[in-house]
Design brief:
Helix content: over 70%
CATH topology of the largest domain: f41 fragment of flagellin, N-terminal domain
CATH architecture of the largest domain: Up-down Bundle
Largest sheet: 2 strands, antiparallel
Strand order of the largest sheet: 1-2
Number of helices: 7
Order of helices and strands: HHHEEEEHHHH
Length: about 290
């Protein structure tokens, strides 16, 4: 078959185009810092890269969920530590008023102090995280308790859950009912009783109030233990998740990131080859054209 000038031109153009494409991909790899920029660069690697990116995205969301759960738990913990302090203070006050040195006047004054404590406990029971009441179950826009004169629980029993790993959800809240009014003792009712018994100078009932306060304190400590265990679970899961994210990020980097030393060396070589091909192609085309004209 006779080789024509057009055939030579087509072969030269195709060869230079392929070399130019190699140079372009190397330049793009260097400028973007990514070895794989599109599926055509490395189909198998791109499939794995997409899998890693999906996994990392999921892990980022799990970490956000864990942080939210930790914020919820730590806020509840701070609140219940405050409640425990107020109940312990109330017990001290009541103990001081069942002795022989206490009088009707001291009990009236103590009743006023316990009333202030009761107000503070209601405030702690109505603790919010941002705009959300943390002890109201699902009814996070509703304060769980109205006041010291109306302390019936106004929330619900909803368990707020968050996903911290694939198919693994944890409950991050406690309800006001299980903490303050529905446990082994109704803590709010007990504080109300203490105030009434102090005002009525009822020493016998105050003795019973001390037992109820003890039960309430132990109940709050038990709930603090639950929160502590939940916090440890969330923190441990977060630590493991961060290790997994680090490993996945390193593997992703190995797959898609550019080896700059290797890429620069390859680019230099390709540019040299391209220039040499361009020079020889120009000479070849000139020779073919001369043959065509003669």
């Amino acid at each position: 078959m006779r080789v024509t000038t057009q055939m030579v031109f087509n072969l030269v153009t195709q060869s230079l185009s392929r070399q130019g494409e190699r140079i372009y991909k190397l330049q793009r790899s260097i400028s973007s810092g990514k070895r794989v920029n599109e599926p055509a660069d490395d189909p198998l690697a791109m499939a794995r890269i997409l899998d890693f990116r999906t996994s990392l995205s999921s892990m980022d969301q799990y970490e956000k969920n864990i942080d939210h759960g930790l914020s919820w738990a730590r806020t509840a913990e701070t609140s219940l530590y405050g409640v425990n302090e107020q109940l312990s203070r109330t017990k001290e006050l009541v103990l001081s008023q069942v002795t022989g040195t206490a009088t009707d006047e001291t009990r009236q004054a103590t009743a006023e102090e316990v009333s202030v404590i009761f107000e503070h406990v209601i405030q702690l029971a109505n603790t919010r995280l941002g705009e959300h009441y943390i002890f109201s179950g699902f009814k996070t826009d509703t304060a769980p308790f109205a006041s010291t004169s109306d302390y019936s629980y106004r929330g619900d029993t909803g368990a707020i859950q968050t996903e911290i790993a694939r198919n693994h959800k944890v409950t991050i809240n406690l309800t006001g009912e299980e903490i303050f009014t529905g446990g082994p003792v109704n803590i709010l009712q007990t504080l109300d009783n203490v105030i009434t018994d102090l005002q009525n100078d009822d020493v016998s009932s105050l003795q019973a109030d001390i037992d109820a306060l003890d039960t309430g304190i132990q109940h709050i400590l038990a709930k603090l233990g639950e929160i502590g265990a939940k916090t440890n679970q969330l923190e441990t899961t977060k630590d493991s998740l961060q290790d997994l994210k680090l490993n996945a990020t390193e593997l992703l980097s190995e797959l898609e990131d550019t080896d700059f030393t290797e890429a620069l060396s390859a680019l230099s070589m390709q540019e040299t080859i391209y220039q040499a091909s361009l020079a020889s192609s120009t000479q070849l085309l000139q020779t073919s054209l001369l043959d065509f004209l003669t």
